[in-house]
User: What shape does this take?
Amino acid sequence: MNRVYIKTYGCQMNERDSEAVAAMLRARGYRIVNNENDCDIMLLNTCSVRDAAEQKAIGKAAHMQGRKRRNPDFILGILGCMAQNRGSELLDKLPDVDLVIGTQKFHQVPGYLDNLRAARDAGLPVAESIVDIAEEAGSQNTIKDHLTPDSAGGDAETGRQVSAFVSIQQGCNMDCAFCIVPKTRGDERSRPMDDIVGECRQLAARGVREVTLLGQIVTSYGRRDYSHTGGVSPFVQLLERVHAIDGIERIRFTSPHPRGFKQDLVEAFAPGRMPKLCEQVHLPMQSGSDRILKAMNRPYSRDRYREIVDSLRAVNPGIYFSTDVIVGFPGETDGDFEQTRELFEACNYDMAYVFKYSIRTGTPAAALADQVPDDVKEHRNQALLDILRRNSLRRNESLLGAVQEVLVEGPDKTGRRFTGRTRGNRVAIFDTQPHRVGQLAPLRITRATVSSLYGDLV
Assistant: This one.
């Protein structure tokens, strides 16, 4: 009765949290399984950024309550952002849930499961669900464990792990009007730089070749804990130290804030400055209207945003850009959206996450008047996606005949070919042999679609 299935909703931070929980559980003797039908324990790691994400997780939990009623020993838990946001209120809708664990308590999950199992093994009744959403000092330092291919009972992953997420910072102090994250993740808290570098060294020793540094506002890393040295911010200092690690061949980071792109970070992308830093930036725009940016409490203008994009392209003309945009924020007029559309098109993004604004209870924007009708949001959403499709296809087709470096990650979804990513974070599909997994290889591009590249290893 120790088989655990973890279902993750939402962002890369949630993926990393789930990975750490799985590693902690495995170290405690639990078995992580890939099929929910094989589990004795189901943990839903949830997202609260949009209402749809919460409703999806609630629907899944409600469905699993039926299984729990048929099998009283089955354990059902809700973790993460929705647990933090709603707490014991979830039990009003989901009375059969055993665990509700917030974002600063992931490391307590193994102990709570041990207690539940021990009580049931002893035939003792479990009278109340466990709800723990309290803040905990130092919780940012607990997301440090990784699943590895050589772990016992390695059914949670196949093949060699060649890329990994590394959590460097938790929480957010930005208070954007639309965002629930400060409530679900708490204030900014950074991990010690030495600990992060040590984690990356361990990953390199296990064969990991690419790390992605994660934080709610990753560019705010260490700003209260470390001083600027020679005009270099703590975040860029961390990049430099990770760059110096033997075995790590690629570095990425997400998610930054535009205000974090001072000259030291812009210059980090210059060819030759830090060759392991991939020439790909995720730069959330949210809106191209100064009026809407102000209403969102985003501390930059459309002109400043464009300056950042232009400065990055000036130091590295081949850089790839992705972004986040919200359409239909309360009060957004046709004129406001047109400014967003113009800036979106001018920045020529390679990838974008376009969201239709949804009310998040507890955020300032939830109380604003002039909510935008759903059909208008949908029209604006599609207009940006159409631009994105054209941009992405054009950029991919420009690579036909060119040679791109790919990191061979493993078999593709079909299991017949292999997949990897270019330095610009484009998915590539190709033929090779299993021993090439984990290697950097030159790939000549022979075919391109909106989302993928196809080619032959040179």
Remarks:
- The longest helix spans residues 374-397.
- The longest strand covers residues 403-411.
